Task: inverse folding
């Protein structure tokens, strides 16, 4: 086995990287906990029993998909509609997987499975901000775990608390907005280039315009259009640079 093949094992026990991941992800944990609390309350109020709600939060671990599927479950929609809705809402994770896969392709399948299960929007964003390229670096796996595990724990603590508290926590408190603020706090510092700015602006406009699409399809359309816009702007910039060379 070559040294490059051993890199993931070394990285997994690189403690400074683990602590760095925990530190970088710490500011988002309150928002994640609050968001989980709202989803937990929503699951109980939608008619799920406590065991069902606990099983859902532990197995699904996807707040947007859970919230999108709850009204369908409450309305008695066919199971295929519930699964299709959750699938569409979570298609953004295909994009995340495509971005992360080249960096962790050498890891065992079981380890990749658990890292994929624990990955979330903000943790992936923070990771890619620190490691934007596929360049092998000691500590990548450990850093990612430092982001993922506290994030997963915060979500589960908040969600389980919401399930157990049930109707005693009014949804009018709007705790879910704390999660939105946390996402904004991560996304804004990453918009440092013209392609990124154009992609964010276009995706935001598309998300608003497509808000009424069924099954949360507007979210997927906004993500795809935003990415294509950023890629197009980046391509135009590269062509201009080549002309001046």
Result:
């Amino acid at each position: 086995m070559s040294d490059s093949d051993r890199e993931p094992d070394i990285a997994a026990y690189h403690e400074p990287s683990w602590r760095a991941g925990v530190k970088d992800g710490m500011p988002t944990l309150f928002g994640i906990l609050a968001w989980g609390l709202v989803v937990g309350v929503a699951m109980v109020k939608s008619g799920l029993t406590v065991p069902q709600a606990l099983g859902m939060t532990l197995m699904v671990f996807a707040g947007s998909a859970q919230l999108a599927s709850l009204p369908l479950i409450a309305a008695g929609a066919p199971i295929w509609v519930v699964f299709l809705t959750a699938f569409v809402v979570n298609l953004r994770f295909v994009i995340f997987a495509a971005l992360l896969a080249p960096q962790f392709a050498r890891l065992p399948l079981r380890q990749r499975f658990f890292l994929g299960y624990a990955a979330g929007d903000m943790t992936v964003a923070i990771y890619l901000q620190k490691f934007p390229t596929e360049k092998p670096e000691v500590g990548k796996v450990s850093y990612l775990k430092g982001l993922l595990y506290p994030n997963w724990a915060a979500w589960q603590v908040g969600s389980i608390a919401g399930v157990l508290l049930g109707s005693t926590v009014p949804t009018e408190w709007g705790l879910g907005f704390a999660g939105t603020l946390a996402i904004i706090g991560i996304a804004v510092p990453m918009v440092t280039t013209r392609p990124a700015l154009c992609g964010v602006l276009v995706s935001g406009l598309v998300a608003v315009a497509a808000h009424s699409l069924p099954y949360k399809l507007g979210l997927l359309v906004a993500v795809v259009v935003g990415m294509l816009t950023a890629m197009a702007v980046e391509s135009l910039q590269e062509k201009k640079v080549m002309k001046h060379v």
